[in-house]
């Protein structure tokens, strides 16, 4: 992969992973979520991430609860799955780079509960929230940003094909 001399995106994601996540979110009319996995890199002073995998645990999906309480309830399961993945790939550089979840027909933003989830589970500056609206066919990446009055901001991304 080549990185432009003048610009580095905050997030790089493999097309197949983005497609996988989109396909899952399209199956449900309610919110579903999972983890984003990959590696952290630095170019000059800027950190950027490459998302090369994701975790989705179908048995943790529950239509009667919101994604945030689900993530609280199943974080242990996800951590276990992450450790398994890391071992399987024999890659100690793999990290949890954030989470993805769907907003069916709601548009892409972070709700106040999403923001709490981000702060509690994914507080690092490089950790992102990928929000997908499967009905409006839209998605965005966000990170925490104390300088923004919303508490978060959208970040740039590039797709690796
Ligand atoms: Zn949300």
Keywords:
binds zinc ion; 3 helices; 33% strand; globular; eight-stranded mixed β-sheet; Cytidine Deaminase, domain 2; 8 strands; alpha/beta; 161 residues
Helices, strands, pairings?
Blueprint: E1 11-14, H1 15-26, E2 33-43, E3 46-55, H2 67-89, E4 95-102, H3 112-121, E5 128-133, E6 138-144, E7 152-154, E8 157-160
The structure holds zinc ion (ZN).
Query: CATH top level?
Result: Alpha Beta
In the predicted model, the low-confidence regions spanning at least 5 consecutive residues are none
The CATH architecture name reads 3-Layer(aba) Sandwich
Give the % helix. Answer: 25-40%
N-to-C SSE string, H for helix and E for strand: EHEEHEHEEEE
Multimerization state: single chain
Give an overview of the whole structure.
The chain has three helices and eight strands. With 161 residues, the chain is α/β, with parallel strands linked by helices. Strands 7-6-5-4-2-3-1-8 form an eight-stranded mixed sheet. The protein has a single domain, classed as Cytidine Deaminase, domain 2 (3-Layer(aba) Sandwich). The chain starts with 10 loop residues before the first strand and ends with a strand. Bound molecules: zinc ion. The site of zinc ion has 5 residues, from loops. Zinc ion binds next to loops.
